[in-house]
Amino acid sequence: MTNTVDLNRNVPRLGLNRLEVAQAIGVSANTVDVMVDEGFLPKPRKWHSRKVWLVAEIVTAMASWPEEGMQAAGEADGEDWSMSA
């Protein structure tokens, strides 16, 4: 029996790099940095110099964002927290 890797097998993505996070949520990579700084996205996990965001943590963070027309907790009236790409 040989150990080979089946490159056609679908493997679930558990973590994403910064550019993949940006692409997944439809913003720029710089906006990902701002969203992390503002607390709208979690900080990445780090292994040596590699930074990885856990998909599950991104989903959880995004689920807590306010729906359109609703005010976020601690948000001043009329303040727009939305990001543009």
From TrEMBL:
Keywords: DNA-binding. This is Putative DNA-binding transcriptional regulator AlpA. The keyword DNA-binding applies. It comes from Aliirhizobium cellulosilyticum. It comes from the Bacteria. GO terms for molecular function: DNA binding.
